[in-house]
């Protein structure tokens, strides 16, 4: 599986180089008519849904079908860390992960709903992510009998998801708002719009690296376009707040920004042991430095891509590619040393831009 998963991960969109929106995702949930959902289905019916879905995915002619139970531990951890599947799905039974060979899209079978179709796009390009899932939804719908009601829409495992079966999210990077202590105020506009907000994965805190995920709420009984427009409008407003905060900081206290960026560069260049939260904060400040012209030879996209690359399983893959015997699980201290090495490699060709 390793080669197939590695190939798919390499096809995922490069995070946006500029702007607050780093990446976005769209998810479609579908149920199959005549079958109870996972959790209520017996083993025989669960296997029947697996077989029907696997046949439809295979007939589509564009998926690599992988059974996670047959994958190595490191591959399963990579899939979880990259948010392709939840932890519970990765370790349970012979669950299927279908990876599209043509686009950054993947499907799971019997993960709460009978079928889940997800796609990712760079920045806040929700229209592109939706185009991808909608195309595959239509393709699979030619051979799968979706559970649908004229009154309630698509029938999903949880009533709150009935209707479109759609949800979407955008990951935002808000370092200037974080420095100014204005993140909560800026995100309130999203909450007032009925959206939900959560912090990016972190060991110790609610968020890490000034990253926040805006997500459409459950129970939006409306059309797909309206859902995406509501999320996109909120992203645009918060992005404008971030830009304003950055311009305000640069106008009134540029040395504070420069000090933050230069310290992060020093950590990336010289630190020998780095925990995940420290690494994420370092990347966040380096991306701010790239955006403000304080670092040359380093892009915002490099920094954004590193947020996943500094996670433990990705570092173990880094060791495996080096042929290290530690690849199956080194001591925590060793992981911190590898993380520091990855940071050094990211800024190896970068330099600070001094001003007179």
What does this structure look like?
It is a single chain. The chain is an alpha+beta fold and 356 residues long. 48% of the residues lie in helices and 17% in strands. It has three domains: 1-14 and 25-157, Glutamine synthetase/guanido kinase, catalytic domain (Creatine Kinase, Chain A, domain 2), CATH 3.30.590.10; 164-252, 2-Layer Sandwich (Alpha-Beta Plaits); 253-352, no CATH class. It has 13 helices and twelve strands. It starts with a helix and ends with a strand. The relative contact order is 0.12.
The termini sit apart by 54 Å
* Biggest sheet: strand arrangement: 2-3-4-5-1-8-10-9
CATH C-level category of the largest domain: Alpha Beta
Helix proportion: 40-55%
Overall geometry comes to globular
Most strands sheet: 8 strands, antiparallel
Topology overview:
Blueprint lengths: L1 H10 L9 E10 L12 H18 L2 E5 L5 H9 L5 H5 L4 E5 L4 E7 L1 E10 L3 H16 L6 E2 L3 E2 L11 E8 L1 H6 L2 H10 L3 E4 L11 E5 L8 H29 L1 H17 L5 H16 L3 E2 L3 H10 L2 H10 L10 H15 L4 E2 L4
Antiparallel strand pairs: 1-5, 1-8, 2-3, 3-4, 4-5, 6-7, 8-10, 9-10, 11-12
Compact overview of the structure:
With 356 residues, this protein is α+β, with helices and mostly antiparallel strands. The chain has 13 helices and twelve strands.
Keywords for this entry:
Creatine Kinase, Chain A, domain 2; 356 residues; single chain; eight-stranded antiparallel beta sheet; alpha+beta; 17% strand; 3 domains; Alpha-Beta Plaits; globular
């Amino acid at each position: 599986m390793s080669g197939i998963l590695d190939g798919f991960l390499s096809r995922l969109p490069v995070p946006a180089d500029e702007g607050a929106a780093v990446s976005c995702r769209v998810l479609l949930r579908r149920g199959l008519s005549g079958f109870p959902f996972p959790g209520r289905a017996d083993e025989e019916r669960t296997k029947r849904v697996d077989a029907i879905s696997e046949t439809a995915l295979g007939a589509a002619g564009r998926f690599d079908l992988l059974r996670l139970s047959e994958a190595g531990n490191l591959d399963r951890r990579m899939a979880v860390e990259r948010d392709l599947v939840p932890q519970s799905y990765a370790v349970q039974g012979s669950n299927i992960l279908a990876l599209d060979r043509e686009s950054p899209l993947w499907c799971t079978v019997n993960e709460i709903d009978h079928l889940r179709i997800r796609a990712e796009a760079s920045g806040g390009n929700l229209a592109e992510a939706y185009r991808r899932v909608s195309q595959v939804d239509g393709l699979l719908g030619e051979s799968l009998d979706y559970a649908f009601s004229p009154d309630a829409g698509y029938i999903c495992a949880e009533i709150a998801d009935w209707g479109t079966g759609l949800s979407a999210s955008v990951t935002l990077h808000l370092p200037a708002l974080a420095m100014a202590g204005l993140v909560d105020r800026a995100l309130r506009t999203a909450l007032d719009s009925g959206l939900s907000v959560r912090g990016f994965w972190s060991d110790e805190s609610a968020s890490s690296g000034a990253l926040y995920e805006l997500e459409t709420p459950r129970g939006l009984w409306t059309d797909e376009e309206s859902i995406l427009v509501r999320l996109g409008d909120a992203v645009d407003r918060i992005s404008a707040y971030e830009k304003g905060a950055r311009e305000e900081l640069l106008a009134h206290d540029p040395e504070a920004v420069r000090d933050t960026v230069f310290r992060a560069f020093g950590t990336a260049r010289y630190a020998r042991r780095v925990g995940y939260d420290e690494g994420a904060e370092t990347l966040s400040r380096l991306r701010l430095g790239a955006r403000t012209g304080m670092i040359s030879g380093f892009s915002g996209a490099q920094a954004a891509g590193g947020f996943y690359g500094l996670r433990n399983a990705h570092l173990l893959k880094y060791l495996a590619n080096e042929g290290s015997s530690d690849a199956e699980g080194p001591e925590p201290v060793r992981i911190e040393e590898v993380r520091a090495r990855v940071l050094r490699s990211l800024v190896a060709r970068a330099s600070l831009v001094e001003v007179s």
